[in-house]
Amino acid sequence: MVRPREFDEEKALHAAMQIFWEKGYEATSLSDLTATMGIQRPSIYSAFGDKKGLFEAALRMYTKSHAASVRASLHKKASVKAAFRAFFEHLVEEEYREEGSNKGCFCINTMVELSPHDAKFEILTREHQMYLAVIFQETLERGIQSGELDSGTDAKGLAHSLVIALIGLTVMMKCRPERNFMDQAVYSMLSSNGLY
């Protein structure tokens, strides 16, 4: 008979996600994971297989939550332009709120660290990028249908451009440029795409 797990798997996975997000895959040791998750190695192996299986589960947890958060953020405002402006301005605001807190996006960090050498993580991070593009495209199409955006707007192409901008901004903020530099970049990106 299989013994029931003696720990909250979702809580432990969330703790693992936080340490992986902060340190990256390679720099996170099993000792870091056991200390952060509050469980022993055999429990990690039993629940997740190995470190890479745990990392994948943590990344999937993050991408699901992140996509839901992006969708909710873009639906908060009736105006599509205001929604994108608030989304990108909040992105910068959050990154500069706490000194020394530049974790960035867990998925983008994974794309940079692991995707070049690991096909599974290349696929997982690309899937998330494409899902964000769909969310952006749906939001842009809402703006076209309401008449807020020009009827000739290429919603799909613009959505892809916005995902690339999101990735670029997030990576750039990891090295903490002057805040004004980032604010100006967001303004220019949005205004040149008719979203400001």
TrEMBL record:
GO molecular function: DNA binding
DNA-binding region(s), residue ranges: 29-48
Taxonomic source organism: Paenibacillus riograndensis SBR5
Presence of keyword Transcription: yes
Pfam families reported for this sequence: TetR_C_13, TetR_N
InterPro entries in UniProt: DNA-bd_HTH_TetR-type_CS, Homeodomain-like_sf, HTH_TetR, Tet_transcr_reg_TetR-rel_C_sf, TetR_C
Domain HTH tetR-type: 6-66
Keywords recorded for this protein, A-Z: DNA-binding, Transcription, Transcription regulation
Recorded superkingdom: Bacteria
Protein name: Transcriptional regulator
